[in-house]
């Protein structure tokens, strides 16, 4: 479970997140929607301890991300919007680095690395440097790192960007399976069709404020004049 309580974040004199309250339960896939600059990535960076919180609190499975950072960070895996990290490491070096951080036993580590990287078709590239990978391959190696330590909470910022259709389908199946086991999946996306196909609930944010949180059915019932999620989203986030 992710609990965001009265969270505010400002940069210079501009308030990016404005008293945001949001609770993401266990066993759900929740899509996080908003136009560019709405505050999605800033929220995710505060959730994961990358950015400090100006006001309010964020807890992950009961651990405060600022007061109990080590405990909180053990509960989640993050796929950032730009997977350009650890470029001077080889793929296998990166995965072993993740395995060492989370104390993954060697036999479990070996099995998970081989299984997931073969599914993502990057197994033969594990001895290559990540800087030689395409964007999609970098995305896959980061996702593999998340799956390696199998945290209860998955936080993903535009996770399907750059993935080929097969890998995109595979990741969506993994997200469903993770939630069906009673875990939490929270992901941001601009792909409204993907969100419509995949999520149990959706949160819509604009100018740092939560506009809606609930099921797609509830969203449609509140906006009966619109036929599609795209139309609802555009009307809700239309500044005019």
Automatic annotation (TrEMBL):
Protein name as annotated: ABC transporter ATP-binding protein
Pfam families: ABC_tran
Residue ranges constituting the ABC transporter domain according to the UniProt record: 2-232
UniProt keywords, alphabetically: ATP-binding, Nucleotide-binding, Transport
Database matches in InterPro entries: AAA+_ATPase, ABC_transporter-like_ATP-bd, ABC_Transporter_VariousFunc, P-loop_NTPase
Molecular function per GO: ATP binding; ATP hydrolysis activity
Organism: Oceanobacillus halophilus
CDD domains: ABC_DR_subfamily_A
Alphabetical list of PANTHER family matching this protein: ABC TRANSPORTER ATP-BINDING PROTEIN ALBC-RELATED
């Amino acid at each position: 479970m992710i609990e965001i309580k009265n969270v505010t974040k400002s940069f210079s004199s501009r308030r990016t997140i404005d008293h945001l309250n949001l609770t993401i339960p266990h066993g759900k896939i929740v899509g996080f929607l908003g136009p560019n600059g709405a505050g999605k990535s800033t929220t995710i960076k505060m959730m994961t301890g990358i950015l400090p919180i100006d006001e309010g609190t964020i807890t992950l499975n009961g651990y405060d991300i600022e007061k109990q950072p080590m405990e909180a960070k053990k509960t989640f895996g993050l796929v950032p919007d730009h997977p350009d990290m650890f470029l001077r490491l080889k793929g296998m070096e990166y995965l072993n680095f993740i395995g060492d951080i989370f104390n993954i036993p060697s036999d479990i580590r070996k099995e998970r690395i081989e299984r997931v990287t073969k599914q993502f078709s990057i197994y033969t590239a594990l001895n290559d440097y990540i800087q030689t990978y395409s964007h999609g391959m970098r995305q896959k190696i980061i996702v593999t790192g998340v799956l390696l330590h199998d945290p209860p909470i998955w936080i993903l910022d535009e996770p399907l960007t750059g993935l080929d259709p097969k890998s995109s389908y595979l990741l969506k199946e993994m997200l469903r399976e993770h939630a069906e086991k009673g875990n939490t999946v929270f992901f941001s996306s601009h792909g409204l069709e993907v969100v419509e196909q995949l999520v149990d609930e959706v949160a819509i944010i604009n100018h740092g404020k939560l506009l809606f949180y609930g099921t797609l059915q509830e969203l449609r019932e509140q906006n009966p004049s619109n036929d599609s999620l795209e139309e609802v989203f555009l009307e809700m986030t239309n500044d005019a």
